[in-house]
Amino acid sequence: MREKNIQVIQQLLSAPKKIAIIPHRNPDGDAMGSTLGLYHFLLKNNHFPTVISPNEYPDFLAWMPGSETIKIYEKDKISCTQLLHEAELVFTLDFNALHRVGEMENVLNTLTAPFVMIDHHQSPDEYALISFSDVAYGSTCEMVYNFIAALGKKSEIDKTIGTCIYTGILTDSGSFRFPKTTGNTHRIVADLIDLGVENTEIPNLLFDNSSFGSLQLLGKALQNMKIFYTNKTSYTTLTQDELDCFNYVKGDTEGIVNYGLSIKGIDFSAIFIENKEDKIIKISFRSQGDFDVNQFARDYFNGGGHRNAAGGKSEVSMEETIRKFEELIPTLKI
Q1: What does the alpha-carbon distance between residue 319 and residue 214 come to, in Å, rounded to a whole number?
Q2: pLDDT beyond 80 at 1
Q3: Does residue 177 register a pLDDT over 90?
Q4: CA separation for the pair 145, 38 (Å, rounded)
Q5: Number of H helices and number of E strands within the chain?
Q6: pLDDT digits (tens, 9 = 90+) for 47-73
Q7: Out of 16, 166, 205, 220, which residue is the most buried by the measure of CB atoms under 10 Å away?
Q8: What does the DSSP 8-state code read for residue 298?
């Protein structure tokens, strides 16, 4: 962070404030970890923070310290809107465009409080007074750690804050397998482990608590998978009927897209998930190597993200969406 920005934030935080902390819609481990890590840090510094999520977070993250305090906008719009208008400072974490919060964007656009953005995605919008935006980072949680350190408060990172930060680093790095996992990432993790963060237990809480239905759903997704070896591409689909058949709950499809990349010779993978309530096909893209799924998602599927991990959506039927994708496959340089 620039020294000037650090000074501005230090001034903003120099006296107790009501602070809203906002993750993106459908928060993942990094969004939850960064917002809750910042929440505990601000609480420790005598502020009055509230994490307000646009919608429900997945069950496999419900164990995280402080998760029970999170306000859900979709469940209580009146109360959350009041909290947002009362906020004297607003942090937005793990996203860089206000449309990523869905309907809550309408409220955020009316706020007069200054915004602080902490995020590692490409092409940030310019809505924040202070932006800590850097695509070199593998997770927003790693940025939150450095944000706290830049404020001269590294010594205040304790086991609780560290547990939140570790969770986001672990999930967004693909368990330390993705290219943006650096030596600094591991040095931060080492510091967190030294603070008592339970690095052997957290993966169990995140990855070893599947329901029988979620495993059946995974099986169905693997059955639906199609492979294009010549184009180094795989994709799978899940319809709304298939989700309903296996009692889908939020989080059950997390990580399924990565199975395609585990196939020898495949460098580009996608999953298409039907959501009849929102009338969209939700899409996740993953790649390894040089193929830029962020640009692909931006160009063809109203999305974006990172070079090797991105998302998108389609507002036409599953059949039309898949037809478009299959027509694009031979044109790609993977």
Answers
A1: 24
A2: no
A3: no
A4: 9
A5: 13, 12
A6: 999 999 999 999 999 999 999 999 999
A7: 166
A8: H
Q: Give which of 156, 131, 159 is closest to 143, Cα–Cα.
A: 131
The letter for the amino acid at 168 is G
Helix (H, G, I), strand (E, B) or coil at 273: strand
DSSP letter at 57 equals P
How many Å apart are CA 229 and CA 217, to the nearest integer? 24
Residue type, 142: E
pLDDT band at 81 (very low <50, low <70, confident <90, very high): very high
Indicate whether 305 pLDDT > 90: no
User: How is the beta sheet containing 233-238 ordered, strand by strand?
Assistant: 226-228, 233-238, 268-275, 280-287, 309-314, 304-305
In angstroms, what is the C-alpha Rg of the chain? 20
Q: Which two tokens stand for residue 266?
A: 């495949």
Contacts of 23 (CB under 8 A, 6+ apart): 31, 32, 34, 35, 51, 53, 54, 93, 94, 95
**Can you tell me the distance from the alpha carbon of 202 to that of 220, in angstroms, rounded to the nearest whole number?**
27
CA atoms within 13 A on the CB side of 247: 7
pLDDT of residue 306: 85
**If we measure between CA atoms, which residue out of 144, 149, 146, 105 comes closest to residue 127?**
105
Give one word for 175, left, alpha or beta, with left for phi > 0 and alpha for psi -120 to 50. left
- State both tokens at 60: 């496999």
Instruction: Note the pLDDT tens digit of each residue in 213-266.
Output: 999 999 999 999 999 999 999 999 999 999 999 999 888 998 999 999 999 999
Residues 6 or more apart whose CB falls under 8 angstroms from that of 78 comprise none
- Token reading at 16: 């107790």
pTM for the full predicted model: 0.88
| CA–CA dist 100, 55 (Å, integer) | 11
146-149, long-range: CB within 8 Å, 24+ apart, which pairs?
146/1, 147/1, 147/38, 147/118, 148/41
Instruction: Go through the domains of the chain in sequence order and give each one's CATH number.
Output: 3-206 (3.90.1640.10), 212-331 (3.10.310.30)
Would you say 283 and 303 are in contact if contact means Cβ atoms under 8 Å apart?
Answer: yes
